[in-house]
Write a structure and sequence with these properties.
mainly alpha, globular, 8 strands
Length: 509
Amino acid sequence: MADSRLIADQLLVGLGGADNIIDVENCMTRLRVGVRDQSLADVVALRAIDNVIAALPGENFQIVLGPGLVDRVAIDLEAARGEALSEDSGPSTADQLADKGSAIRQQNKQRNNTPVKNVLRRVSNIFVPLIPALIACGLIAGINGILSNLATSGSVPWLAGLSPIFGVMSSGFFALLAVFVAMNAAREFGGTPIIGGVIGGIIVAPGVVNIVVWGQQLAPGQGGVLGAMAAAILGAYIERWARRWSPDVLALFIVPTLTVVLTGLATLFLLMPAAGWVSVQIGIGATGLLTTAGAFAGFVLGGLFLPLVMTGLHQTLTPIHTTLIEQVGYTTLLPVLAMGGAGQIGAAIAVFFRLRRNTSIGRTIKGALPAGFLGVGEPLIYGVTLPLGRPFITACIGGAFGGAVVGLFDQLGYTVGAIAIGASDLSLFPLLQGSHGWGVAALGYASGLIVAYVVGFVTTWFFGFSRDQLISLNSEDTIDAGLVPAADVAATGGPDVRAPVLADSRNRS
């Protein structure tokens, strides 16, 4: 296992020291480090650190480490930064520290205070913590399906006793998913998580079947995760409002009671009917889109997914996936979107063979491909295809053709879906399900993967590089110097990125 503290200490030096770091955040594969002065960061040294797949300079410095390791390094980097700041604080006065803190807050506010970033961050913070549970319960459900089939066929009859056990393990979380979503939403919007859980519990309570609203009988779970999220956000605002005027001695009684009562009434009479309608429309829209125009829709969705991942916009799809899983038991969008990562794998393999002399790029690809085959595409995006320019476009083309194949299966009535989110590429196979069972869904998904791999490889091989870029990237002088002229990269139609992103990338895990 990689030494996360050693990596953190090296990153601290490479980023220009503790005083140059504004904040440290991380997603599933990347560190996002805000820096004050980009010129103080040693990009070459950062890319030379063991287990660093790629380092992308900017006001918000991005360092690709891969899943698991990035979480540990983020914690250790914060700790190392705090220790360094405490040691270097010396004779700083309270006014100086206050000014420094005010400047940091203002810089963060200006950089991150955009509507899109705010929405994405908050939606992501609500749903991303649930992904491990979604994957676990989805895999257990898949195992239970195999056990049930074996028991029903009579080939292994004693497995019939195990099926109910695994069924409870897999279904318990999904039965209370609205509660967990509401707890996370309350926390994210400044409320008390347990009160958010109580509000979410209203939505799934069996007793709602006895309530008639606007002439409609409510059903347990109506509105699903969308209703739970909206209710918990409303509850957080009501709770904060109540705390502002409630006397301290009575706050323990007034605030939670008033929050639950007011939010509960709004949830039952407004949010559950409205969110229920929206959820139904999402299901109808997604199903209708793939049923009537599956191949075309799959082509568009599969081709656009990598740009969505690059910008972080893919997180906004999480509530849609979750809603579809609640409604029909699986999401038909995820297998289509997963083709984007498959196209990138094909493109990366083509890059590996086209740039055989560039051992640095080869090491990066070798280190990032295993994660790619398991559905984690960001190391390949930021370490290989995006910096090169054209290979990112050809990867999107591979994903588009793979998405068209999966969409065609849906259009023909052989639905391909996933019973959980968070997995992709090969790791999605155990989570597949559809209108004709796992076998047909797996056939459709595998067909899409193969097409995406092949098209991504072929288009990258023939169109991924200009002649000058091939010569430059395979040149010993270029490799040794660690540079490719920016004009060569810009000529590919890709971003104006210098080749150290590639030539100096390392992954020696």
